[in-house]
Specification:
This protein is of the alpha+beta class. The chain is built from 8 helices and 7 strands; from the N terminus they run αααββββαβαβαβαα. The chain has a 5-stranded mixed β-sheet with strand order 5-2-3-6-7. The protein has a two-stranded antiparallel ribbon with strand order 1-4. The protein binds zinc ion. The site of zinc ion (ZN) has 6 residues, from loops.
Length: about 190
């Protein structure tokens, strides 16, 4: 790769400056590689920018006459809150009621990651996962419940612990109490 085309990463010098502002010595042994590491890790944790549900699901979409609820539960995710750039993390439960098209099950966690890997609000992430799945699969309905801990609340002492639960119900899960009840029953802890 020629020098002219090499990607110039502007994050490491910013991190180095941040370390200095915080009272650190970026030259000390333990911190020498930190700016590069922080840059790589932040790039990874925000790689969802520029991707959408169609990218996550790819060609893993199959014509199939199956109209029972499909649930993938306890999908672990890690995201960053947009207010503090601190982690919030937990599990997502995703369900949909197919209407002629089913999606490869391994793509659902990938879908969650696309929306988790950016600066987020839990409420918005929940809705984006639901709407993304709806857009790509055109199902009878989509239901998403997200349970998360927010380190910006716990570490700063705003709230010691506890889960924040958000949900988004679309189509039959919003309109039909029985579909919604079936979904909530399926994700209930035993
Ligand atoms: Zn926050």
């Amino acid at each position: 790769m020629s020098v002219a085309h090499r990607f110039e990463d502007e994050v490491p010098p910013l991190v180095e400056r941040l370390l200095r502002e915080l009272g650190e010595d970026p030259a000390r042994e333990g911190l020498v590689d930190t700016p590069d590491r922080v840059s790589r890790s932040l790039r990874h944790l925000t790689e969802g920018y520029g991707m959408d549900a169609a990218d996550a699901i790819g060609d893993a979409l199959f014509e199939q006459d199956y109209d029972e609820i499909v649930v993938v539960k306890d999908i672990p995710f890690y995201s960053l809150c947009e207010h503090h750039i601190l982690p919030f993390f937990g599990v997502a439960h995703v369900a949909y009621a197919p209407q002629g098209r089913v999606v490869g099950l391994s793509k659902i966690p990938r879908l969650v990651d696309v929306y988790a890997h950016r600066l987020q609000l839990q409420e918005r992430m929940t809705r984006q996962v639901a709407e993304g799945l709806e857009t790509v699969t055109r199902p009878a309905g989509v239901a998403v419940v997200v349970e998360a801990r927010h380190l910006c609340m716990e570490m700063r002492g705003v709230e010691k612990q506890g889960q924040t639960v958000t949900s988004c119900m679309l189509g039959c899960f919003r309109d039909d109490a029985r579909s919604r009840a079936e979904f909530l029953q399926l994700i209930r802890r035993t």
